[in-house]
Amino acid sequence: MSDLPHIVGSDIPPSPPDKPRIIRPSRNFLYKNYFLFLLTAAVFIIAMIIFLLFVNILIGSSRGPTVQQQLNDMYILMSVGFSVLWLVIFVIYGIGMYIYVKQMVFIVHGSEIVVKKGLINRTEKHVPYRTVTHISMRAGPFDRLFNIGTVEIQTAGGSSSSLESMAEEKLEGIIIYREVRDYILTQLRSFQRKELKETGSELDSQSFITVSKDDDLLKALQDIKTILSQRFQNLEDKLTTISNELKNQRKF
Q: Which residue of 34, 76, 177, 247 shows the fewest CB atoms closer than 10 Å?
């Protein structure tokens, strides 16, 4: 599995018009999921072994050597059984996760983002730029451990206060997730400028609002300058008067 076949390195070159960019998760995303599965399995197996050992000691010590031996045999059998069960589950999980990650594709178009994923049921979701309200990035402790991150795309359909739960789609397992986030923002702004140019009335309206706000600000600054100039002039006149009075007193 190649890491970002069309986006390589830390510098993403400008995309030609209407040419999509294909982004794929890194192998590290697969390794992260394997690590989390093994960590969960290890914690479960250790907890189960400690529990069985406690039961074996607690019950076997009061039931005689015969019962103690039976409990020891059962303890070993159950410990080995749980370990083998988790190993089988890990093999199944590992194959499924490999296929799932391998089939994940994120495509950044000039007007939308397409996310393809799924193991049994393949899904293809289109997120148009005109519905995007927020783009963020996230890297949890395990993500940072494997040097990957997630770009979250939030749309106007979100209803929760949490950005993670509001995310319409997530571009997961990306090494250069900061560059991908910036690249998507560049495409989004380019799309918005194109939309404004195609709707001349909206562009004129926005320009008028901006000019109007700038004029109001300039006028307010000019008023402040006039007031300060007057006050400084009055202060200068008073200092001149006091200086002349002092000179006249010295003459007498």
A: 247
